[in-house]
Amino acid sequence: MTNADTDRVGEILYESFNAGAAKHGYARKMQRVETGKSWAWSMLHYGSNELLIAEVENRIAGICCLNPRGDLGGVGPVVVNPDFQGYRIGSQLMEALLNRAENLQSLRLIQEAFNPASFSLFYSFNFMPVANLLDLFLDGGAGQRLEPCSDVTELTAKDLDAVHTYDSPRSKSDRRKDLAYYVRWGKVFVYRDQSQIRGFLACLPGSGSVQLGPLLAEGEEEAGCLFQHASAVFKERDCQTRVMARDYLLVKTLMGFGFKVYCLDNLMVRGAWRPGQHIEAFGIFPEGV
Ligand SMILES: CC(C)(COP(=O)(O)OP(=O)(O)OC[C@H]1O[C@@H](n2cnc3c(N)ncnc32)[C@H](O)[C@@H]1OP(=O)(O)O)[C@@H](O)C(=O)NCCC(=O)NCCS
Question: pTM (2 decimals)?
Answer without folding.
Answer: 0.95
